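Summary: Need help interpreting a holo structure output

Steps to reproduce:
1. Submit the protein chain below together with the SMILES for adenosine-5'-triphosphate.
2. Request a joint structure prediction with the ligand placed.
3. Inspect the structure token block that comes back.

Expected: a single structure record containing both the chain and the bound molecule.
Actual: see attached output.

Input attached:
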Amino acid sequence: MFRTSTRQLARCSRLPLRPLARPAVRAARFPQTAPAATLLSTRYNSTNSPRPDGENEPPNQPPKKQDDAGKSNQPTPPPRREPPPGFVRLTQEEYAELTSILALLPSKQQRAELEDIFKDATEVGVPVELRDILRSKMNGQLTMRDALRIPRIAYQIASKIDAYERSQKGNVPDFTSNKPGEDKEAGQDRQQGTEGEQHQQQHQQQQQRQQQQQQSGNQQGQKKQGGGKQQPPRRFDGSDALTWAISAALLYPFYSMFFSSETSREITWQELRKNFLDRGLVQKLVVADKRVRVELNRDAVRAMYPDSQAANPNFVYYFSIGSVDAFERRLDEAQNELGIPPNERIPVSYAQEGMAANLIMAFGPTIMIVGLLAWLSRRAGTMGGGSSGMFGFGKSRAKMFNHDAAVKVKFSDVAGMDEAKTEIMEFVSFLRTPERFQRLGAKIPRGAILSGPPGTGKTLLAKATAGESQVPFYTVSGSEFVEMFVGVGASRVRDLFATARKNAPCIIFIDEIDAIGKSRSEGGGFRGGGNDEREATLNQILTEMDGFNTTEQVVVLAGTNRPDILDKALMRPGRFDRHIHIDRPTMKGRKDIFKVHLQKVLTKEDMDYLTGRLAALTPGFAGADIANAVNEAALIAARANASSVEMIHFEQAIERVVGGLERKSLVLSPEEKRTVAYHEAGHAICGWYFRWADPLLKVSIIPRGQGALGYAQYLPSSDAYLMNTNQLMDRMAMTLGGRVSEELHFPTVTTGASDDFKKVTRMATTMVTQWGMSEKLGPLHYENDQNQLHKPFAEATAQAIDAEVRRIVDQAYKQCKDLLVAKKKEIGIVAEELLRKEMLTRDDLVRLLGPREWPEKEEFSKFFDNRHGEKSAPPPFPTENTDESSTLLDEDKKTPPTEGER
Ligand SMILES: Nc1ncnc2c1ncn2[C@@H]1O[C@H](COP(=O)(O)OP(=O)(O)OP(=O)(O)O)[C@@H](O)[C@H]1O
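--- attached output ---
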């Protein structure tokens, strides 16, 4: 091929060729500057007399300079040595071939340096191997393997030259010896035998060396050589050879693609005519694309231009044409002018050349980009832990557990939700013995939605179902379906269900299904626009669940905290048929859950009393809170170096879980402390004297958690699911006790009661708008959705609601003030004691105020009348919140709020 100019070759081969040339230069030139010069001068002298075989005449030899003085004083040149075994001298043609290879080097300097090395080789010869390679190139059969042999050959030549130079200096081995051990002796013998010659030679070498050094102006080199120090031998280290090999391997495809082991040059039509056509040297013209390759009659060219590159059989000339027609016309005209008869006209052929290059040009960039993407994808895949990379976006990310690997949870590990367990047991029986149901024609529910507040054990229940039924369990979170790319969610759903079907019977658990299962109408309105991707994912889930046939044993369980916002289509029979609500555990449930988790810690307490008391102390706690409190107690015990976890540790842990950390660093001024003490005493007195108030457990002025400077704790009568107006009014009055006490004891009031007001207002509003406890508004439910712009009731109703809320709060305030005015002395007693002790328990209040007038619930006195002689450690921390699910506002349910926080 001859499509690319040498310039292009130089460009494309610059990178690979440089390292290729450099090692040779480094090894052969610099360490041996002077000996190399000596060698050259010796060679020039020795080649001055023509040899009969003409074999050793190097091509491109510089003109032989001889000054007259040199001529007259010139000693007789030493006889030329035979090349060492395995080495031969190259013919002119072979040198020409070598030169043509060197001509490929992009840099002149590199070319000169390499030529220098091979000139050195004219004296020593070159390995037979190199000659064979050059010959195979001449025949157009240069192979990749041949190219890779070049570094080794260079190494051999360099070593031989080194041996040769040392032999020239005397006392050094003979370069003709191949065995290193023999070198020295053989060299000595030779030296003795030809002493006269050696002497002359050395003298001559010295002269030449001086000349060379003067020319190069290399003072340092002169000193070194003048000092007669033996230079280290030339060395090609392994890395150089490796660089050669790699570079050759990289270069070869380009080289063979563009040049097919031939070099080329572009000429003009005029040059063609003048130099070749008019002289009858053109044998054939080959038209390829817009270029014409000139095939010359090599013998004739060699005879006419013996020194020209054109004599080289692999050297090619070519010229560019505008169009084939114009070229043919021009050629005809030229041949007519030259009077070439029609039957001897130059044959013209047409070839389709450069297909490969054309294809690479056309598709190369695309192939590279696709390759890059594929590589990135593989990489992403391996980094992401084995999923199929970029193209694995659509793969489900569900984690799979099976009976060998993971799910060891059993129903016995799930406490306090007996009804939910019974419901879900049915799925287990279906997965274990499907025929029992199918025999009677019963269709098994496809799935169940487990709903409930966070931490109530929904995931745990699903895991237990898998553990009991001994089937694979796939768990995935709803949010894992959501990706920024459209269609990925649906594809992951498809993949998840396909995998599940393959591994049936199995259970799929989709946690937080509300992330994708939100009602479709909800997204479209004012609140932020539709979400096509989410809808597509939801639709895919609906489709997949429809796609199950009744015998496919794949059960889908889903967990959510917000069943109210789920799409109705998800809940219809045939999809998530069962809706299992898991609420916060009751007193008994908490006791059972404590039992489960207490098995994991070391305690010597009486288990029945311990679990009962802890359950009483933790109304409103979910299973996760209980697990956390038990673990926290163990940590506190460990910190205190206790031998087992004691009641005091559990109570401290509960207090910490509910109230937050004690803030010892917060130092109040005496005046502030006094205000806090009277504020908390106001709450405590209300709790003590109001009949329907929750029993008080502890009052403290130690700051805790976020911004609470003091608190009074009450234990709500547990498992009370309804509250009447009396209880609500007493609770509101008790909540206002702090502010009223401040009013009674200080000239001004503080900001500390703001949270109390919030609670009171919310309670009163709920009484009016939802619980129908206002005679004026009657039994109506007014939903005031904060997200709606307009209230769903008339302005007059809004005003009526406001008036009623105010009336109720005023009433509670009056109730509170009446009591505290009457009990002003008692407030002072409690507040002063608080200032002294910082924390008072129920027993302290009994001591200060006498026993409470109203009987306590049995459960309460059972655990808090100090029958067990508890160190009144941390008087437990609880709350106004009860287990009731319908009477309190949602926000109060999760973390039981403390009454009287300020
Ligand atoms: N009924 C229970 N019995 C025993 N342990 C429980 C119970 N409920 C919750 N737990 C404890 O709480 C941890 C968290 O529970 P789980 O993850 O099942 O809650 P969840 O309802 O799925 O919460 P979320 O809604 O936030 O996902 C469990 O690992 C377990 O230790």
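--- end attachment ---

Reviewer comment: The longest strand covers residues 282-288. Residues 677 and 832 are 8 Å apart (CA to CA).
Status: needs-info
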